[in-house]
Automatic annotation (TrEMBL):
It comes from Streptomyces catenulae. This is SalK. InterPro entries: HTH_67 (IPR054058).
Amino acid sequence: MTSATTPDLRAGRHCHNVVNPFHSTHYFSPDLGAELAEIGVEGRSPGYFAIRSAAMGAVGPGTVTATFYNFHHTLVARHVPAVWDVVTPEAALAARLRAVDRTLRRLLGEELLTSPEMAEAAELALRAAEAGGRGARPLFAAHADLPVPDAPHLAYWHGATLLREHRGDSHLIALVGAELDGLEALVTHNASGRGMSYLGIMRTRGWSAEEWAAAQERLRGRGLLDADGELTEAGIGLRKELEDTTDRLDRAPYAHLGAAGVARLTELGGAFTQAAMAAGAFPAELFGR
């Protein structure tokens, strides 16, 4: 139910869509690779698995595959738990935060990072995340146990991370309910034109062209893809249902923040994300079809 003080479900989705890229900037930053190399972690995949799962402790490959969902388990098992022989979760988290700090300083500059607007965005994001549900949301719950950094831009990044992982965990619940495995989720999202590009998926998720084709065939068998790999009417309907279900499961943080707070966080988050994108935060070839 929506009122003057309770935001529409789609308002929460829109807010997430502009706040999430602020969290994601460090994944594409050379600063992350440099910080991880300093502690002995080389390569994109082991670094990514380490920094994102570290909040859960030195977990094994099964936990990472389950919580990340759309990575090939063989790729995960190639690097986890071996990465924990090189670095502790605590060291990985510290390196991640240093990389975030370096990345945001380079992209946005000191004036924006220390602005009243950044501090306001941090307060709003963290207030929203207070209402996030921990049940069946392992990545959110683990990150919610971490301390909030003192610097406003890092506090906002931490709040953005919590909101990202809360929606991500909620989305996985929706995917399981729709009986889409990790690769099928990637294929349908790519076919919608809104997900990571085929090139980006193949570079980072560990799937083969043959496995991609097999997933397409399974989806055709369900009437979700046509012969050209495009979403059918049923496929479009399923993707809409997935997003609507995710909105519903992810509504608590935004309901807690209220309509005015969500609107303000969307405004501030959009401005910060646009500034980061204008500074070249994201490689264009990883997105789209």
